[in-house]
Design a protein that fits this description.
Blueprint (H helix, E strand, L loop, with lengths): L6 E6 L2 E6 L6 E5 L31 E8 L6 H9 L17 E7 L2 E7 L6 H6 L6 H10 L3 E7 L11 H9 L5 E6 L7 H11 L4 E2 L8 E2 L25 E3 L8 H11 L1 E2 L14 H16 L9 E10 L2 E10 L2 H8 L4 H18 L2 E10 L2 E2 L3
Parallel strand pairs: 4-6, 4-7, 7-8, 8-11, 14-15
Antiparallel strand pairs: 1-2, 3-15, 4-12, 5-6, 9-10, 13-14, 15-16
Helix pairs in contact: 7-9
Length: 383
């Protein structure tokens, strides 16, 4: 039997946490804690609600806006949403298809509540089979759009291979929901050195139907045109959309341009009662957030298609004395895959667990004790 004992110190959110590894083979438990058992997350300031004469919140003044965020895989949709709501809600990784179902992120500013739907990357049927995606993968974004007031299309401005045209699946989606207002977000502008590239992209992707959005100035859209559905083959369709109401230049990673976009959302909000309490940031359960966070880090640490074939499931979840105690099991198809996840002397599993723990501390705003276990051949492996 091999025993592993690891003591380290991580600094997260200006607080210390201690990481422990138990004396179990192929199982790593990490505890994040602070001197006062409390980690302060970087959250938006609490909203202030106008009150009636009886002291109750004035719901008649409440406003909200529901935004569906769509785009092809890996354009930065989840990072964009996390940063604009200033809270880690959507798991992110460097690989495509980290988001496999529509996630909801909520942020409240005064009397205005913004609801974002983080949708899976728009894909073809071939990609669904290749990455072993759920059958409901394609319907997730449709459901999100049907519940939205506006559609935000994110385009990766840094990808020189794809940035000059909208993907056919994006165009098909815009055509299918042409009655909804839509706008374009050019993301990752921090990776570009030339403003000329951005100006050309705006002209190309909007079919030169927007004028005035130059160097960050607010755009002046032309008069809306009637959208006529057509049955033109994909190979002959246009690669631009002439009905965007606006274009925004942002860097979801650095936060550049997000404040202007946030102000735009608030000004476009509609008078109606909120669907969520002011202190809620997502409608996902803690167990779902934990499993998705583990899956996202497995995508980062494992090569090629291996992480897409893994099954992650929650084994235990409880909150006690302001500490989240949780355990996740990763089912592997073969012992070889299990060894690949654990690494030499459980080194890789330790790294994955530490990264996920950091993500969860930021997500929940409190101390986290996480255990990740692996299993292959139908039973848990211990040495």
């Amino acid at each position: 039997m091999f025993c592993y004992g690891v003591r380290g110190s991580l600094i997260l959110l200006n607080c210390n946490k201690t990481v422990f590894a138990p004396l179990l083979a192929r199982t790593l438990s990490t505890t994040a804690d602070t001197s006062n058992n409390n980690v302060e997350a970087k959250l938006p300031p609490p909203p202030t609600e106008a009150a009636n004469s009886d002291g109750q919140p004035n719901t008649q003044q409440q406003r909200s806006l529901h935004i569906a965020v769509i785009g092809v895989p890996n354009v930065g949709k989840s990072t964009f949403i996390n940063n604009i709501v200033n809270h880690r809600v959507c798991p992110t990784s460097a690989k495509v298809h980290t988001t496999r179902q529509s996630n909801t992120a909520i942020c409240t500013f005064g009397q205005t509540q913004l609801v974002f739907y983080d949708t899976p990357g728009l894909v073809t049927q071939r990609e669904i089979r290749k990455h072993h995606l759920d059958k409901s993968f394609k319907s997730a974004y449709r459901h999100a759009i049907q519940h939205s007031d506006i559609v935000a299309v994110i385009q990766d401005a840094s990808n020189s291979w794809t940035r000059k045209e909208l993907h056919p699946t994006v165009l098909d989606t815009l055509k299918a929901y042409a009655k909804l207002p839509s706008f374009l977000i050019l993301n990752k502008i921090d990776a570009l050195k030339s403003k000329r590239v951005l100006l050309d992209l705006i002209k190309t992707l909007t079919n030169d139907t927007l004028q005035g959005r130059r160097a960050g100035k607010k755009s002046t859209p032309r008069e809306p045109q009637t959208v006529v559905a057509d049955c033109t083959p994909l190979s002959e369709r246009e690669t631009s959309w002439s009905h965007f109401s606006d274009v925004f230049l942002v860097s979801a990673l650095t936060g550049s341009g997000l404040q202007e976009l946030q102000d735009h959302f608030i000004s476009a909000a509609k008078p109606r009662r909120w669907e969520y309490p002011a202190d809620v940031y997502t409608d996902a359960s803690p167990e779902t957030l934990i499993v998705e966070s583990v899956r996202a880090r497995l995508l980062d640490y494992l090569p090629q298609e291996i992480p897409y074939n893994l099954e992650c499931m929650i084994e235990y979840y409880n909150v006690e004395k302001n500490v989240v105690y949780t355990s996740v099991l990763v089912k592997c198809s073969t012992p070889r895959i299990e060894r690949l996840i654990c690494g030499e002397s459980n080194g890789k599993l330790r790294q994955i667990t530490e990264r996920v723990t950091s993500d969860l501390v930021e997500m929940f705003g409190q101390a986290v004790s996480l255990t990740i276990s692996t299993m292959s051949g139908g039973k848990r492996t211990t040495a």
